[in-house]
Structures are given as C-alpha cells and as structure tokens.
Amino acid sequence: MKKISREYEIGDGVIDGLINKLAKKSGSAGTEGLLREILTTAVKLGLESGDKGDLKLVNSTLKELRYSFKIFSPYRAVKKAIIFGSARSKKTSAEYKAAEEFARKLTAKGYMIVTGGGPGVMEAGNKGAKIGTEFALNIRLPFEQKPNPYIDEKDKIINFKYFFTRKLIFIKETDATALFPGGFGTHDEGFEMLTLIQTGKSKPRPIVLIESEGSTYWTAWKHFINNHLVKNGFIKKEDFNLFRIVKTVDEAIKYIENFYRVYHSIRYVSGLTVLRLNRKISGKTLKLINQKFKNILTKGEIKISPPTSEEIQKEEYLNLPRLVMNFNQHDYGRLYEMIQVINKD
User: Quick one: CA torsion of 51, 54, 55, 58, rounded to 10 degrees?
Assistant: First the structure.
C-alpha cells in the first residue's frame, strides 16, 4: 500500500487554516509552500519551547538572514569576492597593502568586494574597493571589531550578532575567496570554506591564499596540512586542488578570472551533476576529461547536454551549454582539477 505523505503542519485545524491564509497573502506562487512551512515552524517553536533563550536565538537569526538577503538581492548577478585576514594588521604591513591592491584591481574588473567590516585586512579591502562596490559584514564584539571608516555606502553594512549567520552570508553571497595572513578567525573561515567545498555543501569557487614575497605564512601552513593531514590519511592529496597559494595580487586575480573562463556554475538535478559553461568546449577536451576523470563517475560518461527539464522550468541560464555526468559527489578535489582542464580549452 502506498504511503500517503502528510503535510508539515500543526495538527490544529484553526491554526493551520490561519497559517495557510497568511502564506497566501504573503507569498508568491513559487514560494507559498515554503513560507507556509516557515510559519508552521515558528508556531511550533511557540507551542513546544518555553525557553526564552531558544526563541531569542531563532528570532535574531531569522532577522539577520532576512535583512542580509534584502541587501544582497539586487546584486546577485554581480560576482563578488570575500576577503579574509587579520583585524590586527597594521596599515604598513604587507598583507594590508596587498589586500588594498587586490580590492582595487578586482573591482576595476567588475567584481564586488565583501569584507568582515572591521579594521586591518578588512579595512584594507574596503579602502581599496571602487566606491559603491563593497559590502561589510560586521560582527558585534566587545572589543576590536567596529566598522571601519572606508565603507562608502552605509546601507551595505550588515551587523551580525552571531558568527554562524555571518559566515553563512560570507559563503552564500560570494563567488571567490581571498585569504590573507591572520589569526584564529581567518583560519576558522578558511577551513570552513574548504570543508564546505570538500563535502559538496558549497559550490566550487576559486580560493586564493595570498602571501607576500619573502613570507612563508601559507607555505608553512600547507606543509602542516601535507605532513599531518595528507600523510595520516585525513584528507586526500587531491584536496590541494581546492586552493591556490600565490605570491602576488596579480597572480591571485588571474587565478580567479581563469576559474570562470569557461566554467560558469554547477547544478544537481535528479542524481545528475550539471556543469554549466560560458561557451562550448571542443571535442578534444570532452574526450580528454572522459579519459582522465572516469574514476570520479559512478557510471556512464561526461556528455554535452541541453538544459534539463528542471532548469527549463526555473529558467536557469537556458542560453548556456552544459556537461552532465554521474559525479560521485565525493572527489571534489578531482572535480576542481577537471574544471581547470575545461578552462584551458
């Protein structure tokens, strides 16, 4: 006998009816169902939790996310890079100067910049960015972290109570990551970025670790990763493909631009992995990636494909060519390697 799926609801006809009415009044045709579930969750929290602290956490989180989506929504079509680095870096430090140069040169190429909004490397990023092209996601702390004076448009400053919502927006609303030398926070943000990509929880993106000439900051970090994580089998050596250590700002920008040279974006549809491309690749490159990356497929081969029915329904980049494959959704270091091959076409 076929199991009948039940809607996510309160179970009280009067309350569920009120939720349905409110969802219809507030949602659009495509969002009504999701809005109904959000409202249902809010009511369930009220009915099930007597802990005011729990409700305050959910309330603050939802408010921060809503406001962040509102601020970023008009700029979703513009690529953005997030800059991570120390809040304690001096204006005379190599990393401050490099972050300022990086922001200046990348915004000149049409990108926008996102920083943590504080002093040090974050300040340098906002200072270097072209006017009107930067965001600041500030965290409220009892020390150290106050919005820097180089944020030109105050409506692009978002103040967060929680690190986890701030980090979510860092990742969700950007397309590239630049890491400069920093402390615990920089490493936390860098490792989380790598973890999310390594596990498929975040889409592929260029991650550059920038150290100045004469510095071994990230090189020494990579030695630690190799000697203790790779050699002990905690990660694969192919995971080194997830990031690139560079010595100059120009090299960092070149890597970011090349990452999106042919590759455009990724989509998962009914078990298939869809790679959307800025242009068609040659038959030679298609043959090469099928030979070289067969071992990251669960079956079949990598094929050229028109948009899937789900993409057509949602009108997602219908003008772009595509590759489809049965990717094992595990070997993301190798997937990055394949993207690099495609970008050389």
Answer: -170
Question: Does residue 228 lie within any of the structural domains?
Answer: yes
pLDDT digits (tens, 9 = 90+) for 65-93: 999 999 999 999 999 999 999 999 999 99
Specify whether 147 is located in the same domain as 215: yes
* pLDDT exceeds cutoff 50 at 107: yes
Residue ending a domain, among 211, 232, 259, is 259
Q: Order of strands across the sheet with 244-246?
A: 157-160, 134-139, 112-115, 80-84, 176-179, 207-210, 244-246
Both 251 and 114 in one domain: the answer is yes
Residue that is last in its domain, among 240, 259, 278 = 259
pTM for the full predicted model: 0.92
Query: Would you say residue 5 has pLDDT above 50?
Result: no
